[in-house]
Amino acid sequence: MAGTYSQIYIQYVFAVKGRQNLLLKPWREEVFKYISGIITENGQKSIIVNGYKDHVHVFVGLRPPMNISDLIRDIKNNSSKFINEQRFIPGKFSWQEGYGVFSYGHSQIDHVYKYISNQEEHHRVKSFKEEYIEFLRKFEVEFDEKYLFEWVENEGNI
Fold first, then answer.
1. 31, 50, 53, 147: which has the fewest Cβ within 10 Å?
2. How far apart are CA 15 and CA 60, in angstroms?
């Protein structure tokens, strides 16, 4: 029987519920490592997981048996459970509904990796909202801004 060989490169982008600045620096890295473990446990290739106070970028090598929406469901469900069990924040942590997902070719891996690894510096000059809308436009994804994430301007949060 012939084998199937492939590698599909996908970037997920998703936000904290209400876009609150809850992903705090002291434990943010631990959450990103946990998310990477979820990806590996699902038999996928974790390339990089990084983000900022209110959102996360996940870059994976996805194999065909894995459904795009199943992987992000597992990432969001298990990581929010982890954050709550660790009591990183007072109250209940949740991810916002929805996500962006974008595909890349093999030749773009280094560029995407560098972009994701540089999130903190990147967001000194550009908001997550600006970044996300830029992705949607770059990938020619039709959208209505009123149905995007809850854009709460909350620079004063935690």
1. 147
2. 17
Whether the pTM exceeds 0.85: the reply is yes
Class of domain 8-147: alpha beta
CA angle 57–139–60, rounded 5-degree value: 35
Q: Where are the domains of the chain?
A: 8-147
Nearest to 55 by CA among 148, 138, 142: 148
- Tokens 């979820």 belong to which residue? 38
pLDDT digits (tens, 9 = 90+) for 43-55: 999 999 999 999 9
Q: Where is 36: in which H helix or E strand?
A: helix 25-41
